[in-house]
Amino acid sequence: MNDIDSGKYIDLSSYPKHPNNNIINSNKPLSQSYHFGSSPNPTNRDFLYSGQLPSTNNNNNNNSSLQQFQYNSEWLDTPDNSPSKPGSNNNSNMSSTIITSKYETPLSKKATAIYITPTSEKVYDIVPSKNDSGLDINSTTASLSSSMISKRDIPTTIKISNWDIFWAMLNDIVGKDKMAKIGQYTLRLLIYYAGQVQTKLSDDVININIINSRYNDSSKKLELLKNFSKHPADFIKILVIFVSSTFKLRFQGMVNGLSTYRQFLRFGKTPFRIHDLAIKFNKNINYKENQLNVNYSGLFNRKTLGQLLSLYYGINDESLLLFKLKFFSNPTFKSIVARHESFAWYSETWFAMYNAIEKLSKLNQQEMDIKIQIQVRNKAKILSRQLLLNNNNNSNNKTAFDMSNSSNNDDLKLLNEIQFKKNNVYLDIYKNLSDLIFNSYTVFKMKLPFDTIQIWMGISASVLSTIKLYRETKKKLIEKELNK
Question: What is the pTM of this model?
Fold first, then answer.
C-alpha cells in the first residue's frame, strides 16, 4: 500500500503536473477519494482543486454542515470525456478534475456553485437548499427564466424617426383620412369657441358689423392704433372680436374642404364591393336541373354581414358626395340618403365593436396559454438542472439548455406580439365608443348635453385611430429595417 492509498499527506511536487493548469494528472480511478495537502494541518488555500478535507478537532466545526458539490470541468476536449460516463476513467487525454468533494463551511450556511459550459456565454447560478432534493425550486424559478436568455439573442434596437413614420402615414390613404379628420374636428372646435367669444364680447355699440364699416381702410385702422393708449379696454375688445370673426371666416371653408377631401378618399369602393358580393353569391348558389342548391355556411356568415354593411354605408356616403358635386339636386333624396348614412355608420360601429371584443377575448386566452406553458417549462428546467447536479453530463445537458433558451426567446416574442395586438384592440374599442356616442345623438335625435360633445367625440375617435396607425406603421418600418 502506497502513501496515497494509506491516506497519508504527500508532497505535490513529486507528481507530474497538468501542462496548462498545474493540476495533478493521476491515473487512479475516479471513484476513490484522495487526501492532497502540503502539511498535516492544511488550510483551504493549501488545496489546489478538490478532494476530501480532513476534519479537525476544533469546537467550531460542530456547527458546520457538510455539503456536496459536483464541478464540471472547463478543460474537457470532447463531450465523450465526461468522467460521469462509465468507461471513461482510463482516458489518458483528459484531466481528472471532476471529483466529489466534502468540506466544512463553519462561517456560512449556504454556498454558491456556478455551472459554466465551455462553449456558451451563459452562466447559471445555483444556490443549494437544505432540503433533500438539494435545490429550492420556488426560489430559483424567477432567476432561471431571466438567466436563460443570452445577451446575444436580444435584438438590436432600431430607432425610427417620427418624421419617417408620419411621412409613411401620409403616403397611405388611411393615414391621410385619419390626419385630415383630426384637422377637421380640431378646426370645428376652434371655430365654435371663436364664435362664442365673439358673441360674448359683441353688443349694440361694438360688433363685427360696426367694426367692418368703421375701420374699412388703412387710415382708420391707423387711427385705432393711435387711440390705444386712451381706450385700451375698447381696443382689446375690438381686436378680439375682429380676430375671432376673421378666424371663423377663413377656416370655416377649410373645414368643409377637409370633409369633402375625406369623402373623396373613400369614394369609388362601392363597385368593387358589389363585385365581391356577386362572386360570393355565384359560388355559393347553384341552380341545376330545376333545383336550387345554397351553401348556407359559406353565404350566411359574419364576413358576408360585414360586406353588406360596408356596401350599405358606401352607397349612401358616396351619394352625399355626389350631392356636393351637384350631380344630384333633389332635396328629398338628399335627406333620405343622409339619414341612411347615419344608420349605416351606426350599424358598422356596433359590428366593429363586437369583433374587437371577441378578438380581445381570443388574445387573452392565447396569452394565458403561453404563460402556462412558460411556467411548466420553467419547472421542467429546474428539475433537469437538479438532474444535472446529480449526474454531471455536459454533452447531454448543453443541448437541452440551448433548446430551452431558444424556446424562451420564441415565447417572449409571442407575448410581445400578443400585447401589441391587445393594445391595438383597446384603441379600437375606445374609438368605437367615441363613434357610438357621436352618432347616437344623430340617429336617435337626442338633445345634446353640451354643444361640443360630438366635436370632442370626433377628435377622440380620430386621435385614437391615428395612434393605432402610428404604432402599426412604426412596426412595419422596424421589420423592414430588420429584413434588410
Answer: 0.64
The DSSP string of 89-154 is TT-TTS------EEEE-TT-S---EEEE-TT-S-EEEE---SSTTSS-HHHHHHHHHHHTS-GGGS
Q: Rounded to whole angstroms, what are the CA distances from 221 to 77, 215, 241, 247?
A: 96, 6, 14, 19
% pLDDT > 90, the chain = 46
- Three-state secondary structure call for residue 346: helix
pLDDT at 16 over 70: no
Q: Residue 399 has what pLDDT?
A: 53
First to last CA, the chain: 71
Letter for the amino acid at 261?
A: Y
d(CA 45, CA 48): 7
pLDDT tens digit string along 422-436? Answer: 999 999 999 999 999
DSSP 8-state secondary structure symbol assigned to residue 14: G
> What's the DSSP call for residue 81?
G
Q: Write the burial class of residue 316 (CB in 10 Å: 0-12 exposed, 13-18 middle, 19+ buried).
A: buried
Of 103, 118, 101, the C-alpha closest to 54 is: 103
- pLDDT single digits (tens) 332-346: 999 999 999 999 999
3-state SS, residue 287 = strand
